[in-house]
Protein 1
Amino acid sequence: MPGPADAGVAASRGGRPSREAARQLRERILDAATDLMLEQGYGSTSIEAVAARAGVSKRTLYHRFADKGALVQAVVGRVVDAARPADAAPAAPEDLASRLQAFGRQALRAALSPRVLALYRLIIGESHRFPDLLSAVAMSGGRAQAVRQLSAWMRQELPGLDEQAAEFAAQQFLQMLVSLPQLRAMGIGAPMSPEEGEQWVQRSVRLLLDGLRVAGGAQAPATPSGVPCASRR
């Protein structure tokens, strides 16, 4: 039986919804699925419940998402995309330290956003029972994209840094940047204040650049902000 929202989809010739109406319907379904999964958990969220919350029929939902796995993949991708730090480096100044600081602020803000924290709780709590969750996170590509961006900046600034070393440094930087602040935001300790968050980013960048400097045997001049920036070799 059609749901209330099914009737509201503007139909074109032959009964097909317009492109914009189809997009709006898909967003309505994802809104409902996201809210239910983050509120109730993945295991407790049924296709029937999502269809009822979205006001559509199960047939309409299945026409857009083949199964629950496809639906959670879309939900995770949507949450990750909404929180993803901007890819572009700041226009000026263009030194590596400034790029990393700007990226770090954006990444930390995203990692501590309510929906990302809710998704993190969901993954921790249910991924051992529902592999679809981990598959969805892997396919979202959020972390992989961040690692590629960070690695590219490091190799641009340090031409002697090989791809494997740059990727390792990027992975470690992301881990130290968000892991503890997320745990504190989830109740393991007191949440960081904005001032503590800014200091955390600054110190994480400094630790990364000091490590790159030592590994490369280069002297790192200080930036105007006082954060060392690894020299070009």
Protein 2
Amino acid sequence: MAVPITEAPATGAEPDPLALKPDLERIEIELLLEGIFRHYGFDFRAYAYASIRRRLWKRIDEEGLTSMSALQQRVLHEPAMMEKLLLDLSINVTAMFRDPSFYVTFREHVVPLLRTYPFIRIWHAGCSTGEEVYSMAMLLREEGLYDRSRIYATDINEVVLQRAKAGIFPLDRMQEYTDNYMRAGGKRSFSEYYTAKYGGALFDHSLTKNVVFSQHNLVTDRSFSEFNVVLCRNVLIYFDKTLQSKVHSLFYDSLAMFGVLVLGSKETLRFMSHEECYQQIAPPEKIFRKVR
């Protein structure tokens, strides 16, 4: 867990005096994030401050450091440290058929829309290690739509993309995923999709034959195609309002007319500039259709 704001990192070292001076600490964090952007091109400057702060202190703790400045020194001069920090800063909490009720609603309300298209383009933004990408591939296969679909699975983090491509997931999570799959309206036996191999569960490679995994930064990169569905679940909650608005404009520009935007359960279109351009398909699920 991340260190609470009033506590120093549990390293056994003396507390960093700046940790007790929020204004100075914020300056150090802003300098670190600016340095990361200018040196590596990753832009975390508009991420929610409290979340970024917790993740930075987690890395400071694990490296046995005592200050943001010490972390900045390591990050700017050691690419390997930047790779570690990127894993901390990018959001990688996911599961297969996460929030099963969403998949039930998607089958009932979105799949009929997709049947009207000769070819379906889906963008899964912030796909992390790929569990939800494989979930969508299974759903499309079971609905007879996979062979005329293309899923673009993107993430800022190349490390997690490589894990997604490998398609090997922990065996000890298969019971949880099986339960999710059944509650999500799965039509087959979940165990048919994987075999126990390489110390984990290796999923059928045919599930990714129509998937393109690619690095993409929602903060700095532009739209790269026109899509019938854009999924970005549980990513925007880590952005501040300004950055959320910027990313929503990117999604709007990326969606074809009457395309579908899917957000996480705690995310919203309220107060965004394109709020009036969408209709919510099936409340309470955050599934919206672009109507103007």
